[in-house]
Specification:
Elements (H helix, E strand, L loop, with lengths): L2 E6 L5 H9 L11 E7 L9 H14 L6 E5 L5 H15 L7 E8 L52 E6 L10 H22 L7 E6 L3 H12 L4 E3 L5 H10 L1
Parallel strand pairs: 1-5, 2-3, 2-6, 3-4, 4-5, 6-7
């Protein structure tokens, strides 16, 4: 099952969030060797050709091959590029590839999640499984209900292993998680540098942002990442925002 936390949009203690992610008695994620921040289409997503999808799958499996621990950040929804990455990992697992060292982490705006009430309803939790103090097992139906085609709400992707849900009180608004995502990406590099120095084995996991298609919020996320020194790679030919970034760079 996937694990999630709902947090405020500002004033987050990054040390506390890091402890949630990595402490053995919490989410227990291994320290990452590589962090891929996937930034791209979620709303007016135009879709990929089969050829492009196959290239994406090959690239992801190549990046994540071997024993390296990989964190992949996405917007966490079952549409667009995040949905594509979820499918890639699901298909890889189905054919026997070892994806146990890959952790797909959705960083989403709480008010943009369809049926988010299922995650806070006290009557909607599972009795099975062991939980930590203060935790509950909740059932989220990834398929329940019809979405209005004009709605800004989106379903979560079932293939993500973890979710960080940013709640600023808004409803149906996108992009409220961008600042936290940028700060977290920067913090991971700083934290791993410190851990490496203490162990005498300097280790700074490469954090790279990959822009695939996308719109306004893709451009905003890429801009904030670049300002913090995170390398940004725009995939030429994927469409919209990514192609605009390539054009601007050239």
């Amino acid at each position: 099952y996937s694990q999630f936390i709902r947090i405020q949009s500002t004033g987050i203690d990054m040390e506390a969030l890091w402890a949630l992610l990595t402490d053995k008695d919490k989410w227990a994620l291994p320290y990452p060797d590589f962090v891929l921040s996937v930034n791209g289409g979620a709303g007016n997503f135009l879709g990929f050709s089969r050829k492009f999808s196959e290239k994406l799958k090959a690239a992801v499996l190549n990046i994540t091959a071997g024993v390296r621990k990989v964190w992949i950040f996405t917007h966490g929804f079952n549409v667009g590029v995040a949905g594509q990455f979820g499918q890639v990992l699901e298909q890889a697992s189905f054919v026997g590839s070892d994806v146990s060292n890959i952790f797909l982490i959705g960083i989403s705006t709480w008010g943009n999640i369809y049926n988010n009430q299922m995650l806070e309803d006290d009557e909607n939790y599972s009795k099975g499984g062991a939980t930590l103090p203060g935790e509950h097992m909740r059932r989220y139906d990834y398929e329940k209900g019809e979405l209005d085609k004009d709605s800004s709400l989106k379903r979560l992707d079932k293939n993500h292993t973890h979710f960080i849900m940013v709640d600023d009180g808004s409803e149906g608004c996108s992009g409220r998680e961008i600042q936290l995502r940028t700060e977290l990406e920067k913090f991971v590099v700083t934290k791993m540098r410190t851990i490496g120095a203490r162990s005498g084995r300097p280790c700074i996991p490469p954090v790279v942002q990959l822009c695939v298609e996308g719109g306004k919020f893709t451009l905003l996320t890429a801009a904030q990442a670049a300002q913090e020194g995170t390398p940004v790679i725009a995939v030429r030919g994927s469409g919209r925002a990514a192609d605009q970034l390539v054009w601007a760079d050239e």
